Amino acid sequence: MRNLPPFLRILPLxxxxxxxxxxLTIEAWWVAAAAALCSLIGYLWRxxxxxxxxxxxxxxxxxxxxxxxxxxxxxxxxxxxxxxxxVVATVPHTSGRWQQCEAASTIDNRxxxxxxxxxxxxxxxxxxxxxxxxxxxxxxxxxxxxLMRRRGFVGTLYITSPLDWQPLGITTSPAxxxxxxxHTLAGRIDSLGLEHNxxxxxxxxxxxxRSDISPSLRKAYSRAGASHILAISGLHVGIVAMVVxxxxxxxxxxxxxxxIVRNCIASAIMILYAIxxxxxxxxxxxxxxxxxxxxxxxxxxxxxxMNTLCGAVTIMLLFNPNNLYDISFLLSATxxxxxxxxxxxxxEFMGGEGGGALLRALRGVVVVGLCSTLATLPLxxxxxxxxxxxxxxxxxxxxxxxxxxxxxxxxxxxxxxGWLQPVAKWIIGxxxxxxxxxxxxxxxxxxSAVECEVPLWVTLLAYGAMLAAIIVASQWKERKRxxxxx
Length: 486
Description:
Shape: globular
Radius of gyration: 24 Å
Strand content: 5-15%
Number of helices: 16
Low-confidence stretches: none
Largest sheet: 8 strands, mixed
Structural class: alpha+beta
Distance between the termini: 24 Å
Number of domains: 3
Helix content: 55-70%
Number of strands: 10
């Protein structure tokens, strides 16, 4: 165990602490005090084995305390309409007779998030503060309601009449400012004049704005096993990071520390990009990994990519233990772990470094798609009761189109040159149309997916078997290398 990377040993303790924190009801401050005491003893104790026990216990207790603090609270069933002061936190989108958006409010002296639905006869806008009169309905039971509670929402507020909305003015905050930038950049994409479905997936893949995607298109992507491409994750952040990194290295910065300055600029831009995209769990995880990699690169230190992934996951779980129950977070982390574990052996199995540059690039795309799909297959089957068969073959194609869409889309929204519009429209629109048509065709195949009910214990058993195979393979490789050295 001592040979394992640090965060690979810390992460299981954090997960166990979160699970215990959801089962046991203990005052958070008592748990935090016990964690602080264990940390102090572990730091002062000179005997290594005993000190490690206390440090491990302190990590577990810190995770329990964080879980108790961040556990979502229920609101009572409304008996009468109430007046709630809210701030519109996202751009409202029309669906039928309702304008839907997120809103921030304060209930029982704590900040909460509300799903706001206002009649289309009422004018609400991003950043507007007002008093809403209506029923604050609790979230429904089931997986959707539980997911929204874990994300901080407490209910849905309906405003059915203009008389029930009293605007108090426009307010601002860093989060609202980021949403305004996101909306402005989305307008740049709209200015290309793409078809609705093509424009919708471009905004989803580049800016994290998925409200314009039609239900039928969402269903097609889900059945084809390609819905992950619509949510900004490590793939999208990696493409943006590559463009930003190369642009930063073109900056005329001289001096011994010039590379560190460039890495700091690149990291700041990527953090800003994550904020603009809404700070979803997958974006935050990918951004943390990028920033850590830039720091290691800037100071010339070695880094273990799996340790970096576990470190990012650990930080996110300690900050918000509810991420452990967020499916987008789990899928993102699992996909990256699958790529890190399977990339090299699968590449060697498919020909290693042989062939030309184009062949190696195509092989890399295929391997990444296979690794991420196989790694997330048990989790997807358990969560959505669907196992996509065509996704294994489709993912290499959508990864290629995603690289084109995100790269050219980033250039278009960043450079205010009107003469680029025809070229950008042709490339982005063509790639988006190809991706949509391929996904729709694949989802229509009779064998594209199978419906299956996979229990949790089967999912855990599958990942346990994967982990055991990884450990056995690594031990076998280490033993083989040891024999060769002898």
